[in-house]
Every structure is written in structure tokens, then in C-alpha cells.
Amino acid sequence: MEWSDIQIHINLNDLEQVEAVAQMTVPYGIYIEDYSDLEEAVEEIAHINLIDEDLLNKDKTKAIVHIYINPDQSPIEAVSFVKERLQVLGIENEIKIAQVKEENWSTAWKTYYHPTEIGDRLVVVPSWEKYENKNNRMEIVLDPGMAFGTGTHHTTRLCLELLEKNINSGDTVLDMGTGSGILSIASLKLGAKKAVGVDIDSVAVRTARENAEENGFTEPQFTAISGDLTTDESLAEKVGSGYDVICANIVADVIIMLAETIKKHIKQGGTVLTSGIIEPRRDEVIAKLNSVGLVTEKIIECDGWCAIVFKG
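User: That's the sequence. What structure does it adopt?
Assistant: C-alpha cells below.
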């Protein structure tokens, strides 16, 4: 079986941020096409000025970041993760996959996506699969479509494991960057009385709403809203404050950007669960959230990823 080559086409100015997102996606390295200093580099290294014409004609204002996914993993999950992160960061991009055409993504999930047991009590089950529930786990039935969040990625797994230990009966939950809605649905399964999922991607909001309905949750138990909580005051007012639990499974930069917003919406003594943080950015996230009055309570890590619990 061949590996999948995910190609992220971007403007050169965005390369550093996109490289960071790509490094979050896989643990074994990436490949970058950047021809901006091609002529100078060749001259310096080889002391020649003869370069293939095709290379000379490359657009030096663009770059391509390649992520290689091995045959045992889902390229679709990686693509969804990258697309969501780049949209949150406001980075224009075009993503291509060598083995999977975009119009077939929804069916390609079925090749890689199977029931996934998480923590002590949860299991994520694709809507088209059957699961023999021998240990009486709480089933989250999910059809992720184009939205990130299936439970197979480290960031989502870490957040789900923390939810198991931090949701109390009757809690209210705010899910920032809801994606597929998996964290909101898990919260409700674990006993929360209400969950609100917010995402800037309208496709994700629709997917989250559909997944919640598949699991028996409709308004007012689960509400999915599209918008930006950091800039839209009417949205922030609609979402309200005083939440018992806030989940933010996004990326370090966005969690840092959301620090004041998180503080505004969490109740005194409430719990904030953050994930999607690569280990080198951990202290930066902690410092920022501490600076707005959130207290670090617990850190868990897996393969270079961090999830951090704060108290309001």
C-alpha cells in the first residue's frame, strides 16, 4: 500500500504557521517546497549558475507543504485537522491528496474509521458500523463528514479523557471550535444538561448539529452556532456566560487569542479543558491563560501533544 501525500499550497508568507500546523499533524516530519531563494542557494552551495528551467519558473511567492500519511492511518482525518486549523488562522490554502479525490472524502472515511474506545467509559462509533458493547460504554455515534473530530486524533482523545473526569451531572458546557460536535455530544452523554458548540465554519456547525441529533440531542440541550466569539459581541451575548465547563480543542495560537473570551464565559471555579497544543507551546499557553486569572490544574501529554486543565 502507498502512503498518502497531502499537499498544502499556500502563500510563502504563511509558511511558518502552516509548517507548525503540519508538524502537529504527524510525528515523523514533513517536506516543504520553497523556491524563494533557489538561485542564491544553488550558487552558494554548488558555485554554479545553471538551474533547470522548470525550477526557475516556479512561483517564488508560493510554497507547498507535504504531509505523508502511512497506509494504516486516515488521510481524511489529517486533512480535516489541517483545514480547520488553517481556517481558524485565516490562512488561504489549497489542499490536494495524491490518492483520495476531494469529492470522495466522505466515503473514504469508511476505509479508516472504525469504533474507537476512549478512556474508561466512552466509545466513538461510525454511523455505518456496528459495535458490540460488551463493557456498557457510552456510545457516541458519529459521521464526521468534512469536520474535524473523530476521536482518533491525539488532541480529541486527550480532551475526551479529560471530559470523563471533569463533567458532573447538570453541567453546562461551551465547546469552542466544535468541529464534528464530538466533545459536546460526549459532555451530554456524560451527564451535562446543556452544551453549546461554536465554530467559525458553517459546515462544521451543520455537521455538529446533525451528529447531535443522531445521538438524540436537539435544542435546547445542544445548540450549534456559527461565528467568532472574539469579535462578534451579539454572538457572545447570545452564547452567554457562567459555563461550568469550556472546551477549546484548537491550536496554541488560537487558545492564546481566546484567553480573555474563555475567562469571560467560564463561571468562577469552572473548568477549562484545552487541547491541540504541541509540547513546545505548552508553557506559552499556560502563561497566557494564567495571566487572565485561570489557574493551571493538570497537564496530560501523548506523543508530543498536550491537554491542559485550568480552573476559573
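DSSP finds twelve helices and 14 strands in the chain.
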